Amino acid sequence: MVLSKPLVNFLSFYFGQLFEHPLRTKAITCSIIATAGNYTSQKLSGEKVINHHSLLAYGLYGLIFGGSIPHYFYSFLERAISEDASFAVVRKLLLERLIYLPLYQAFTLYVLARMEGKSHNAAMKQLQDLYWVLLSSSWKYLTVIHLLNLSVVPPVLRVLVTNLMGFFWTIYLANKRRQQQAKSKRSK
Known about the structure:
Family: Belongs to the peroxisomal membrane protein PXMP2/4 family.
InterPro entries: Mpv17_PMP22 (IPR007248)
Pfam families: Mpv17_PMP22
Structural class: mainly alpha
Shape: globular
Transmembrane segments: 55-74, 94-112, 156-175
Membrane topology: Multi-pass membrane protein
């Protein structure tokens, strides 16, 4: 019971902030989750020295884009497809998986590479190397979770759930990028 009071206080504060300042709260939450995901992936991959530039890139990406773009997308989705519409959840899922995800995935890969200090050509090469693998993996492994997110989770919490999925996806993405970089170094 002692541990539950701080947790309840934190959740009360968080939901209050989410209600009063949704965009800011989602941006800060995404920044924290993205940074934590990148840090975790670096530790799990056995990095001896933490790449602080990468941590900063993920944190800034989360703060600037990772909370805001999904916030506006899910707000649009709620307005565009009424809950009363026939097959509303399926229509939302198809829109999210077939239009939003491919665009957002490409944007994320490119912008993260640029924020990490890579040149345009290096960012495009990384985008070309990773895009299809990550997109098809997302379709394969995360579609059911997104279906549940759209059908069970209240709209105000969808970005949070997406960010929590993003924590694990960041680990997956960072490991794929490291594998691609190691493969590039071996082929040189």
